[in-house]
Amino acid sequence: MDSGLSVELQTLAKQLLENGSVPLKEFSKFIVQQLWDVIYPDNKRPITSSDRGRMWNRFHNLRLDPQVLKVWKELLSRINLLTIALSSAQLFMLQHILEFLMKLIIAEQQKYDMPMKDDIDTVFPISQHEEQIIRYVAGYIPFALKRRLLRQKNLDNSVLDFVKSLSVESASAEGTSFYNYTKQWINKQNRGGLFVVNNLTYLFFKTLEFHTKKVLNVKRLMVLKDVNIKSELLNVLNTHNQVQKRWDELVTTELDVKVKQDLLKLFVGYWVKLRVNAFVRMYMEVRKRNNKKAGKKGEKALRKTLANQDK
Predict the structure, then answer these.
(1) How far apart are CA 101 and CA 237, in angstroms?
(2) pTM of the model
(3) Percentage, residues of the chain above pLDDT 70
(4) Measured between alpha carbons, how far is 166 from 135 in angstroms, rounded to an integer?
């Protein structure tokens, strides 16, 4: 940020705090009501993944709303800070206040809109070995998607650039981090050809695994045999607020709202296909093993019965 603008912003913030407490409260009250209508236009709660795209569109429209600019000017005028037109610092401050309040409201409301905190860490813990696998799979999916995009005739470069940005090589150097232990196996295997993802991408896929484990687990085998596993898991992941939150953190590039949500469904689709196939293979192995054990028990019981008959 320009040093001159930085000084202006600091001065403006100090003046607002010292002289504008009452007008600032009135302005904030007005803005919070506008933002509430942006987040919950029909008082619809909780926010679904499809709602979020439209919500952020409404927010960007609010930023340019003449009524918001008018109320902001009135605030500045009441504390003698407005000249003929809004300065760069005053415009910048307005945008900062809007964004700050928007994020604050969303964070507070999620405490009420989200279900109670999942006990998944204790019920279905993810081991360090599994985290290494997640890191590998997290690289395979964008790698496969990149190859698919490169085969398209009408290539969307913005989408391709986003997919490329998910790798450590394309991201800014991450250096040492808490998640380095999840890279141990892939670092040993990598000879330069693997798509090694950055930490934000890894956390997105780890969130998918958290909620996948609640659907695909041995405790639900009797339930799962009567449902379409793929459809159920797709529905859970595509509508979960925590998945959407991780996706919003991950997509920092300027993508069209529809493209962004379609891309999320594509990533989730790849993940679901891999996980469901792995789960079905595991289930078949368990079933085969159990049948084999049951067969041996049956043979032993039959031999015992025949032996008793010979006596």
Answers:
(1) 28
(2) 0.55
(3) 77
(4) 12
Neighbouring C-beta atoms of residue 209, cutoff 10 Å:
20
Mean pLDDT score across all residues of the chain? 77
Instruction: Note the pLDDT of residue 279.
Output: 79
Kindly tell me if the per-residue pLDDT of 52 is higher than 60: yes
Domain residue spans in the chain? 3-113, 123-297
Q: Convert 256-270 to b/e letters by CB count within 10 Å (16 or more is b).
A: eeeebbebbeebbeb
- Cα–Cα distance for residue pair 38/57, rounded to 1 Å: 9
The answer to whether residues 240 and 206 touch, using CB atoms and an 8 Å cutoff, is no
In degrees and rounded to multiples of 5, residue 116 shows phi and psi of -55, 150
Q: Which of 202, 285, 274 is nearest to 234 (CA)?
A: 274
> Rounded to whole angstroms, how far apart are CA atoms 208 and 240?
10
